[in-house]
Predict the structure of glycine--tRNA ligase.
Amino acid sequence: MVAQEDVIELAKRRGFFFGANGAYGGVAGFYTYGPNGAAVKDNLESAWRDRFTVRQGNMEIEAPTIMPEAVFEASGHLDGFDDMLVECPECGESHRADHLTEDNTDIEEAESLPVPEVEELIREHDLRCPSCDAALSGEPVEEFNLMFETSIGPGTGQPGYLRPETAQGIFVEFPRLKEYARNRLPFGVTQIGPAYRNEISPRKGIIRVREFTQAELETFIDPEEDEPPLHEVEDVEVTLYPATEQEDEEGEAYTTTVGEAIEKGVIGSDWVGYYLGVAQGWYERVGVDMDRFRFRQHLPGELAHYAADCWDAESEVGAAGIAAGSSGDGEEPRDGGDWIEITGFAYRSDYDLSKHAEHSGESFTVFKQYDEPKTVERAAVDPDMATLGPEFGGDAGAVADALQTLAERDPDAFDANEVEVEVDGDEMTVDSDVANFSVETVTENGEHITPHVVEPSFGIDRIVYTVIEHAYRTDEVDDEERTYLALDPEMAATDAAVFPLVSNDDRLLDLADEVTGDLRAAGLSVEYDDSGSIGRRYRRQDEVGTPFCVTVDRDGVEGDDPDTVTVRERDSARQVRVPVREVADELDALLDPEDDRAFDALTAAYDEIETGVETA
Amino acid sequence: MVAQEDVIELAKRRGFFFGANGAYGGVAGFYTYGPNGAAVKDNLESAWRDRFTVRQGNMEIEAPTIMPEAVFEASGHLDGFDDMLVECPECGESHRADHLTEDNTDIEEAESLPVPEVEELIREHDLRCPSCDAALSGEPVEEFNLMFETSIGPGTGQPGYLRPETAQGIFVEFPRLKEYARNRLPFGVTQIGPAYRNEISPRKGIIRVREFTQAELETFIDPEEDEPPLHEVEDVEVTLYPATEQEDEEGEAYTTTVGEAIEKGVIGSDWVGYYLGVAQGWYERVGVDMDRFRFRQHLPGELAHYAADCWDAESEVGAAGIAAGSSGDGEEPRDGGDWIEITGFAYRSDYDLSKHAEHSGESFTVFKQYDEPKTVERAAVDPDMATLGPEFGGDAGAVADALQTLAERDPDAFDANEVEVEVDGDEMTVDSDVANFSVETVTENGEHITPHVVEPSFGIDRIVYTVIEHAYRTDEVDDEERTYLALDPEMAATDAAVFPLVSNDDRLLDLADEVTGDLRAAGLSVEYDDSGSIGRRYRRQDEVGTPFCVTVDRDGVEGDDPDTVTVRERDSARQVRVPVREVADELDALLDPEDDRAFDALTAAYDEIETGVETA
């Protein structure tokens, strides 16, 4: 397995991503995508939009990244979106207290422990500062809120926060979004955009950053009625790592089908199971290595209190902090890499909508029409206020309300001559006659229900990283070692590169222009490169992951092979002479995901070249 | 002209955009794009990427939105990105002091006046609070920085700011980006993404918001060598409103060509002129009404101190704050609307890169190779430190430096026996012999230059708004008034809508499914709508701006016209019966921007229906 450092080094060299603000020493946790990384990320987002918005028939919205405090009071982030922090008394460095504990004891999931226990563990195990080795024993552990705070408007303004998840921008607009969905469940709303977490120590390369891109789908369902179309995914094979296996010393991940896992109750929610099946196909499509992939169920201690069932999609990537091992020197890479969460699948119940309804006072429900109107009996009072007023004065209104509440709860109480109600802790006695109790028969056409939410939440940056690392290959071509990215063409930043062999021959440059034009007209993204040796240009495109290179040489304009060019396939480094007028069609077909054709079709049809030009 | 309020009302009703966080009373200056608005915005960004990144051969990057303070110390935003604020002593409301002054006096560009002058103007004209009418006379005017501030990391952290323009994310990474461009000028880097301005009173609907999307292109050029390909745009007609015309009472905007405007010196920079020409075609493409569009030159007082020439693209939109006038009641709309800036074109010189070089200490230059190496004479000293040391002690190094500086500035000085240099204000006398002065002949292959920057900066949200407003139409169809958006198909959220006339006939539903499938297979985005009357469904799609609706009725499955459907064109509301197997091809051709075919081709080939079904 390749070391993360090698991937990060290539990413920087070839314009995928790099630490931002380098000229000013950088700020941990912020990365900039260079031109090739931005293109891969854009391709990945398009593939996500195609699968989870368009094909699922969902609506995509775009909400602001800054939101007011009230939203996060309701969502619980203001109180609960904390990490445990311990500050070194010597060097002043801040550390995640739970991570320190996990790294140095056999405690797992220290995050779920109460603060005093973690403080006790630090004392007990005499944990020390990873930066300067000072003792942390006795230092206070504090809850640190991970939201970035700012102030909206002039003066003291009002507090605002950068959203810690795109989801809140969807939940908070539910009252309007349901109108766009014409008040019919189920419906789904998606959003792709930035989210922010003010991590305490974001050291793990690009894996744990402070600003990142999420692609989230919130599916609003009627939990009593709506079933996912399970038949679409029941036969999809998935690798599952259920909680039971994680808790068992001998337990391990295993392969099964979505249908079987749901039937056996391993996956607790049909909807979550459905999305695991849909997502599985999508990860394959974008190039995640499925041998380094699993769905891991949350352990009971990990589950948010409102979540019924939650699974993470995890990919295995090179362990961070291990120097390049593949080159033979330095530390050996670990056998296994790190498993990182790239997506969370959660059954969030009605938690989010209920909280926003409670805090905002607005309605976050959908009116659910009954198949047939229901006739129900409803107890009601119609108190004689002319009597209540003089008798109870300022309390009369409260007494009337209490009578109505009593009627709904215990209609039989009105059989007696007098009823007693409590107002502000005082017992009040009212004549039953004054209450005017009755039972009405009413027809109800439906009821207001708060939808439940099923959420797949994708971490786009981690998937970009995974896709690049899982495509990272080294081999030897013509006795020279090379590195290349075996990216799926749908993900690659560039479809093809065109190289004029020399830059001082106009006929050759004209032909290169013609080929470039033909390829672009066929809809391919093309990089034109006339700088450096051909070998160097191949190496550059190999590292960028460009599927095909087209070299225009003198043979093509005057030699034995007039009007032909060399087409080279990235992964095999095989080369073939293809007539100029066929190049665009051939490459277009090879790049078409719906066309099965492989490079063999070209080597069968045209002359293959035995030796690669890169050593020429 | 339509009132802005009508557009905003339609935008809310049809899922284009609406004030965010409405359940919590909203926060001024933050909008959410609903599904149709997000689609239009995405289409607009794609069209921008196509024109300004792909076709111009530029690189697109994606940088974080949070940046550290050092970046904005260098860029000048920390000191200078301010608006003038005056707070009402009665109601506490904050107002833009410059806007108040402009609105109530005949002063223009109050923004460029010093604070005490604005305070004086408020006193002089007895300006009052627009909210509560309290006197503002005597209240202090303060500079309010428009950046949103936050804190990065735990504890006191380090200050960070939400970027006020995407450009800084490009400038600050220039040292790396130039490597991706292989150190060759000119090259361009683009970015599309959020930017933030903490506006004092963001009241103008969606026009002046606190969080918005910019699409910026930074072109790095060698000002002495690089010329834009003016021939591509010299004949492009543009409406210009130069500074001279603005300053002239009788002056007005006029139409000319880019080539002529550059030749006559109206446009001061070839590069700025080039981009005006490129942008002109792009605005036309996305549907800006060119009769409500102009390029306005910045007045001398408006220009940033570093900018040589700057033009804004401006569109005319319905005046804000005027109630719907087209419906006949309420206030009459003003004759003219408001002109709003939708793009800025600036020649920023080397200001940005020089500032970042100065503040970061890093190199923000490109090595410019000479065509041929130059032989130059260079005066140098090689002081005898064994003599200087004892003579000048701790100042010896400074004396040596001063001698070198003198040699470069005035080599002849070393002809005398002694030379005088100044160190920390003291005159020092040195023997010429000790300085070891000589003139060396050196060969230089090139020099390090700081590129200049030409920047077109597009405000995507304002262009989305303009495109929607300029597409807003009302007319009568079958004696009923209707509203529709005549959006260019490339911008429309949906290409076509499919309506089964009734929902209780399986044959009809099957046919509707088949048509939907055919259209999607042809690459069209399709909305399927089976809810409400056909008239209502047409009105809905008209207001969304869907170019074509396809209605599947009983005639199509059993009547006189088997296997045909009704295709309706949005703008003309004309309808035609088209065979099912032809629908996808016909609509695909009509929607193809490279195909000139109009709806007439369909009415010529098939039976036109005289009466619209919407009144049926």
